[in-house]
Recover the amino acids of this structure.
């Protein structure tokens, strides 16, 4: 069954749901397609404390559930399906077809809000030991390493946030970072350095994950001295950057070398009627707050695009 | 939550999974795990779509510790596919509905 929409939003994280609120309030016939559940990547974190309006912080699930209800209140339809691809509509100039599950729906504008996932380091044994000590989700897997030693790899916000979370459960948390200083926001660095159970291992890269059935240790190499150390750990948590969920867009919109979708200030991609917002977009700061701003702009750009279609200017 | 998905305890696992007539997809999960919540709708769909061909069960690792320990689970969601009491497939982390289908269909 093919359905017609004014706008199809792909991904129901903060950017997609914010776009849905603005599109719904503009009375666009709006479909949001989400392959997991509304919320997206943010649901893997433990607690949100930098989103304005919540001085005591808020649980990711509660915040995203409120976003979802607000989007639905203004008429957006949210379905749990996976988008397989998008292509120009051969029967309608300027329109798009979005392959949703077994169907293909048409839209006059598309907003890409597919986000990003945690990147793998691709070390030997990393893939084999996922779920046997290698993890990308401290809140999911931390409880399996209670009173044991673990290592967090990375020095950004996610790495330090999750290290602090793990320090509540684990005996010892090494934080291995390739630079001599953590690049996370100061409040997180201070919190991590004040934590007795956290041991920073700076200027170091992981060279090997050791273990046959389960993780037994990681080997780290100091990039200044060349000295190799072995950290005996049962778990390794990797926070070494993001990988945009943009593979399915290959050939349809211009992306940078890392796969991020390139847009202008109005969130328009290289392709007319296709907008992008949130973590999937090439930008400098990936936060809920910036995703929300992107989403609002993308929706209003889509509204203007549809108005100009109606006026016959495009 | 779909009624086609069965919640299984440590005590019932051998009977419900290892001795089952049908192939069994087992999801080890917990309420505090975001990706576990994200994969739940796809599991419900798989259970509906393959009713009579595949049994879908969930083991809550908070309430049941013996079975997760038996299989050395230290990351969730972890999915196992059992057939005739034997492990046929294992996968850790979020899977989309399409990926879940490719995970189970070779064994049906």
């Amino acid at each position: 069954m093919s359905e017609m929409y004014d706008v199809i939003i792909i991904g129901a994280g903060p950017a997609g749901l914010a776009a849905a609120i603005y599109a719904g309030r503009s009375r666009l016939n709006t479909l949001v397609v989400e392959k997991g559940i509304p919320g997206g990547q943010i649901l893997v974190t433990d607690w949100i404390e930098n989103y304005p309006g919540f001085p005591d912080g808020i649980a990711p699930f509660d915040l995203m559930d409120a976003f979802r209800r607000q989007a639905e209140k203004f008429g957006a339809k949210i379905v749990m399906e996976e988008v397989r691809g998008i292509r120009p509509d051969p029967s309608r100039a300027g329109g798009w077809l979005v392959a949703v599950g077994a169907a293909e729906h048409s839209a006059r504008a598309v907003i890409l809000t597919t986000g990003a996932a945690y990147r793998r380091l691709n070390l030997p044994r990393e893939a084999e030991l996922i779920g046997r000590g290698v993890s990308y989700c401290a809140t999911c897997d931390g409880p399996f390493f209670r009173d044991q030693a673990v290592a967090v790899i990375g020095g950004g916000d996610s790495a330090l946030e999750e290290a602090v979370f793990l320090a509540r459960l684990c005996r010892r948390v090494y934080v291995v970072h390739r630079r001599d200083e953590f690049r996370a926001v100061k409040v997180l660095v201070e919190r991590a350095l004040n934590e007795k159970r956290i041991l920073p291992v700076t200027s170091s890269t992981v060279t090997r994950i050791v273990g046959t059935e389960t993780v037994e240790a990681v080997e780290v190499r100091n990039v200044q001295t060349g000295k190799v150390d072995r950290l005996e750990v049962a778990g390794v948590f990797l926070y070494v950057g993001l990988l945009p969920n943009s593979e399915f867009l290959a050939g349809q919109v211009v992306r940078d070398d890392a796969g991020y979708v390139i847009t202008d200030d109005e969130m328009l991609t290289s392709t007319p009627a296709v907008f992008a917002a949130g973590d999937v977009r090439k930008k400098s700061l990936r936060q809920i707050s910036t995703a929300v701003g992107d989403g609002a702009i993308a929706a209003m750009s889509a509204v203007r695009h549809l108005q100009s279609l109606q006026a016959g200017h495009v | 939550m779909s009624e086609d998905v069965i919640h299984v305890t440590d005590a019932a696992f051998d009977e419900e999974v290892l001795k089952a007539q049908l192939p069994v997809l087992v999801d080890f999960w917990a309420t505090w795990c975001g990706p576990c919540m994200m994969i739940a709708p796809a599991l419900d769909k798989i259970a509906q779509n393959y009713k009579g061909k595949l049994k879908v069960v969930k083991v809550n690792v908070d309430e049941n510790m013996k079975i997760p320990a038996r299989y050395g689970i230290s990351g969730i969601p972890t999915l196992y596919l059992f057939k005739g009491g034997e492990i046929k497939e294992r996968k850790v982390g979020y899977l989309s509905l399409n990926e879940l289908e490719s995970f189970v269909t070779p064994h049906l």
Observations:
- The longest strand of chain B covers residues 86-92.
